[in-house]
Specification:
alpha/beta, 10 strands, single chain, two-stranded antiparallel ribbon, 8-stranded mixed beta sheet, Rossmann fold
Length: 260
């Protein structure tokens, strides 16, 4: 079996772009549809889920792509300059330049929001979606529910605040531009005109993304082929061996569904 550790250590390639930061990526050839992994906020493509999926795809001769958004991992750019719109542009750039034919997008946390945005922009390319603790509209929830009044005031005054993270040793840098741009990409207040098969995996012990978010996404999607898997004991990471096995089984079943 392909070792996910050796995959994580592999040197990335670079997608050069005129007028935009170069993006680091790793691509494994194989049969389609391409599986594209979209990471989370302040995450990168060397994480457990990304490398486990690549190992799974390699074993089955399936085409796979993972990459870092601008300001993340090995890609160029500063994290604080990023927004939901710009990171969506990064996802579209990699899909357009590095894959062909139908794609299955796997989005983790913020990557689940980017995944939905990309599916709306490329309906003719996106054949299926898997959300792992998908977090559309999370920037608005932070402002309205998680930030106290002094933090909101500091964000509006200074343009940036740093908040502790349960999932990283470094605090998260949250910019006013991120919040304001996020409002231009909110999805959960109206029907989401995506019609491909969608699978949502959500831990009920997740303290970052409330588990009812998965139900809200399912309700808003116009697709009739939507399945939600709730894992009572799982937290936000969904990276333990049983979680990875579930993810890979979900992906394999989705390949069969989109190819039928």
């Amino acid at each position: 079996m392909t070792d996910p550790g050796s995959i994580a250590d592999a040197a990335p390639e670079r997608l050069e772009r005129a007028g935009a930061p170069a993006l680091a990526y790793r691509r494994s050839p194989g049969t389609g549809p391409w599986t594209v992994f979209l990471g989370g906020f302040m995450s990168d493509m060397t994480g457990t889920k990304a490398t486990a999926l690549e190992a799974f795809c390699r074993e089955r001769g399936r085409a796979f792509l993972r990459f870092d958004y601008r300001g993340h991992g090995a890609s160029e750019g500063a994290f604080v300059d990023g927004t939901i719109g710009l990171w969506t542009e990064d996802a579209l750039a990699t899909i357009d330049a590095l894959t062909d034919g139908p794609v299955v997008l796997v989005g983790s946390s913020m990557g689940g929001w980017i995944m939905l945005n990309a599916a709306l922009e490329r309906p003719g390319r996106v054949a299926g979606l898997i959300g792992i603790a998908a977090a559309p509209d999370f920037t608005e929830r932070m402002m309205n529910e998680e930030f106290d009044a002094p933090t909101r005031a500091a964000l509006m005054r200074d343009g940036l605040v740093r908040v502790p993270s349960d999932y990283d040793d470094e605090p998260y840098a949250i910019t006013r531009a991120l919040i304001e741009d996020g409002r231009r990409h909110l999805l959960l207040g109206a029907p989401i005109p995506i019609h491909c098969p969608v699978r949502l995996i959500q831990g009920m012990a997740d303290t970052a993304v409330p588990w009812r978010t998965a139900l809200a996404i399912a309700e808003r999607l116009e697709s009739d082929d939507v399945e939600v898997t709730l894992v009572k004991s799982a937290d936000h990471r969904l990276s333990d061996p049983p979680d990875l096995d579930r993810l890979c089984r979900t992906l394999e079943a989705l390949w069969a569904r989109v190819e039928s």
